[in-house]
Amino acid sequence: MRILHLRVHKISPACHILVRPLTLARECATSSRKSGVDSSIHAERRTHRAQTNNLLLAADRLLESKHAHTIQSYIMNKISANKFYNSYRWVAFARLIRFALSRQLFSVAIVLYDRLVSEGFVPSSSIRARMSAVKIVDSSKDIQDVIEPLTQVFADESYDTIAFMQLFYFMLSVKKAPVPLVDNLTRIYTTVRKMELCSCPDLIDEVVRVNTQAGRLGVAQRWLRAYEESCQSGNVGTDASPHAALLDTLMRVDPKNMPALQAILEKMRAAGIPPNISIFNTLISVNVKQGRVREAFELYHVLVTQRSEQLVPSDVTFKILLRATRLLGRKRRAMRLLNVMEPRQIFREMVECHLQQTGGQPLGRSSSMSASALQMALRTLIARNDYLGAFVVVRVLDIFGFSADLQSYRIVLAHLLSRIKREAKRARRPGEYRLADFLMHLRPNENLDLNDMTSRMQNNQPTAQLSAQGPISTDLHPFPGRLEGSSREVVSHLLSLGEPDRHSDEDLFEVVPLTIIHSSGQTRRHRRMYVPTMPVLCGESDAPPINNRCSSIPLCRLLQKTFLGTLWASSPSFNPKWHSLVQRVVGDATKSMVPPMEAADPVKAAELRKHLDRKLGLPFIQSRKRRSARAGWEIEFVGDDGP
Length: 643
Hints:
By secondary structure, this protein is an all-alpha fold. Helix content is 61%, strand content 0%. It has 29 helices and no strands. The chain has helices spanning 2-10, 13-63, 71-78, 89-102, 106-118, 125-139, 147-154, 161-174, 179-192, 201-213, 217-233, 241-253, 258-270, 277-289, 293-305, 315-328, 332-337, 343-357, 371-383, 387-395, 406-425, 435-441, 450-459, 485-497, 521-526, 534-537, 553-570, 578-593, 602-614. Helix 6 runs parallel beside helix 8. The protein is globular and about 85 Å long. The chain starts with a helix and ends in a 29-residue tail after the last helix.
């Protein structure tokens, strides 16, 4: 009976109801503890990943500074056991090795790999294969003895084309291996891996380029024939990039060899290979270098008529065109006769191509706009004394996700100093007023009235004075013997005209249509950024701005005042309609340089802004680098944590 009672009691619904909550409570507690542990591990991994990302960004910035030679000691110090000893250490080593190889820091990669192995970590198969090949070449006493051991490494499935191209650069740039040996190793690699050449146009690009530079044009053309045959047999469209590499290198080595250029183009036409943007850029560049500016711009117009999603002018195209206009200087009549575009029009077309590729999103990434192209536009407009055009370029930088940098400040300041010196040396005509008069009598933080400037110059002493003695400097970095005396005083005065302590930009001309002010527009207006000082600009200080980014507001303000000075100097008499005149001129400049833009999607704009902010390590000069074999690869910040 007791047993029966126990059995009945055990299966009693009341007891079952009591036992089930206890079981569920235990399961929930276990699950909660497990999820808590997983969450903790995930948070820790995220912290270590961010720490490694910051180290990669800092190393990338260091490579662009004058302390680049300290990169190895810097990385090894940061990755030391007392500073970075955690569960993420093995992955950090792998990412640093990949970074060093992509930046062609082969000695750093070797040291990191040796450290990885000495600490007992087992490298991944891809890292082991890459570094084995590099160490074979590095330790060889006779470079010709590397063929057999490298052939064995090439057979490893984890040894891909990127790994071989890194070895390719190591042998050529560091070990100074003869080109025939590197060419032979390329043949061995493609044979061992049974590769179709049509699958690796980047590798063919480099092999063609290297052989052409070495004067082995016949070998380069044989690679091209093999590549074309591979594309035909595989029923794959032939990429024009290897032919572009041949044309570009040939024109660099022998720019007057026009028969060879015509033969390559004729061969492409016969093979039905459509020209890509690199072909157009090479042809335009060749014409500019040989002084055929009209032909260069005619080629550009042909490119524009054929523009499509696959064929769009790149940033290189616009840099070549801007360089061509600089060759003509300020000879506007010659530009009209030669059908040459004005720099303002070139800038506008660059913006239009950028918006075409990004679907109207200014913050999007495109191949048509880059930091160096914007820098070239600024330099070209400044050289032509188009200060309003330069103002527009600097004013819209933030709209497209860029910032001013030290070099942009130096371009403007060096030009103004040089112009002021030239005007000081030139004899003054009766009743003549100059830009230097305006700038030297202008005071910072004043409400500018153009009608007061003439009387002020007749009665008052200038704020700064410049001696007409001494050489005219054309660049601020580095100065011959440093910037001294009156030149330093003038540059300091010009910097003060930018009113660096005034962070608001309400006083600046508004050249950006209100329809494209994105969600971060108010932040753009009021955020504080670095403003360069005299010691930093002159290279006397080792404290460059973080990420090399500078506030564009003081530079815009200086350019705006310089534009007003040129307007005043052209007609210094009293004019009650100065304000309306200025508005009309600024409006015309805006229309000629900034195309109409539709209202940006605020959600997409915010995401694009976050993406740009996440990569602050690639500033004005280096942001949006083209992903290519020679430029290196961008740092990866998201995705798999595995090596």
